[in-house]
Structure formats: structure tokens, C-alpha cells
Write a structure and sequence with these properties.
This protein is mainly alpha-helical and 65 residues long. 75% of the residues lie in helices and 0% in strands. It contains three helices and no strands. α1 crosses α2 and α2 packs antiparallel against α3. The chain is elongated and about 35 Å long.
């Protein structure tokens, strides 16, 4: 997935807010690649990084509206 695949982020996040699981998946795949290395660099624990990233996306889904 390239940056171009999220060329209309506002539309994608709007779809997410309406409960679109495919939009959520696209957002997850796009941002997970960026969040994981960023958080890992800060806390230096792969296990904790994975938990934090999962928590971030769970909260995003739960508070999508």
C-alpha cells in the first residue's frame, strides 16, 4: 500500500465514522506501518509496541463516530 492509496483521507475517515470496516482496514494498514516503528523507537519493546498500536486502533474503531 502506497501513500497514494490514501489520496482522499477525509473521505476514508468519513467512511470509517459510518462504520465501514474496509475503510478501517485501509487506515490500519496505512498507519500501522508508520506507528509501529515510531513507537518501537521510543519504548524499545516489540511486545509493548504491538499492544500500544493495537490499543490505538481499537480506540479509533470504538470512537469512530
Amino acid at each position: 500500500m502506497t501513500d497514494q492509496s490514501l489520496h482522499n483521507k477525509n473521505e476514508l475517515f468519513g467512511q470509517l465514522a459510518q462504520g465501514d470496516e474496509q475503510a478501517f482496514t485501509q487506515i490500519f494498514l496505512h498507519y500501522n506501518r508508520r506507528l509501529y516503528p515510531f513507537i518501537l523507537k521510543k519504548i524499545k519493546s516489540p511486545e509493548l509496541t504491538e499492544e500500544l498500536v493495537q490499543e490505538i486502533f481499537c480506540k479509533l474503531w470504538m470512537h469512530r463516530e
